[in-house]
Amino acid sequence: MKGILLAGGSGTRLHPMTLAASKQLLPVYDKPMVYYPASTLMLAGIRDIMVISTPADLPQFRRLLRDGAHLGLRIAYAEQPTPDGIAQAFLIARDWIGGSPCALALGDNLIHADHLSVSLRAAAARPEGATVFAYQVRDPERYGVVSFDEAGRAVEIVEKPAAPLSNWAVTGLYFYDHHVVDIASSIKPSARGELEITDLNRVYLESNRLHVERLSRGCAWLDAGTPDSLLQAATFVQTIQSRTGMLVGCPEEVAFRMKYIDADALRDQARHLGKTDLGRALLELAEGEHE
């Protein structure tokens, strides 16, 4: 399976912070925002990743992530000239996907949970259909909302409903089989002129090929697209890391634990980070001081 990191858009809800910098390059505590969804794709076992961003911002992502070899990855890049919807990513990446199954992670989403990699790898290994993850929120009208019947089966997905039928929001992480490019090519722009990911998911739902995994209370999902949610995400990461010593959303650590890189490569990455707390934590991990 391949993975797309969609990091485009103009970040208008974060102006003036995003007038001169991509939203997905803003810091979430001690790491760039894009590190968190990148780590999520890596935890799913995905090593071929395409970063899609604006023509203006793409050079900065190349500078940050390079070709991915230092993380045991293969990273490609593509431009999204105008933000014409999340599902547009599959059309931009059509040739790169090349008939493979493909996951997509939004560049401003953070998911953290125990044993998350197990659920992610199960979704990546599913041979047919699509898998999305749903999370209970207080303000479902801001998201794509999925509702369920009495047996717990997903029955409807609606984008930003005025009167939501449930409080289960579809998170910014999607797994699709090899049909995704053809389906994305068939959907029409919505009233706001975008190729909606909800419309793509609805095609899978209506053909009984959509799997919805409900994230439990022990999971955290944060959409860091507003000043408040950006601060909440940073505070969450700082709290987890300072109280437990565990790293959150760190591609170098994930690459090492997934055996994409060895201790020598991790040690080299730690040295590049200098005398930061993150660099010290990675060096300790490379030296075997942390299990």
Largest sheet: spatial strand order: 5-4-1-6-11-8-12
Terminal CA distance reads 29 Å
Strand content: 15-25%
Helix content: 25-40%
Could you spell the SSE succession in H and E letters?
EEEHEHEHHEEHEEEEHHEEHHHH
Shape: globular
Structural class designation: alpha/beta
CATH architecture of the largest domain: Alpha-Beta Complex
| Count of spatially separate domains | 2
CATH class of the largest domain: Alpha Beta
Average pLDDT for all residues? 94
- Describe the biggest sheet? 7 strands, mixed
Number of E strands = 13
The H-level CATH homologous superfamily of the largest domain, spelled out, is: Spore Coat Polysaccharide Biosynthesis Protein SpsA, Chain A
Q: What's the helix count?
A: 11
User: What are the segments in which pLDDT stays under 50 over at least 5 consecutive residues?
Assistant: none
CATH topology group of the largest domain = Spore Coat Polysaccharide Biosynthesis Protein SpsA, Chain A
Function: Catalyzes the formation of dTDP-glucose, from dTTP and glucose 1-phosphate, as well as its pyrophosphorolysis.
Organism: Acidisphaera rubrifaciens HS-AP3
Family: Belongs to the glucose-1-phosphate thymidylyltransferase family.
Protein name: Glucose-1-phosphate thymidylyltransferase
Summarize the entry for a quick read.
It is built from eleven helices and 13 strands. By secondary structure, it is an alpha/beta fold.
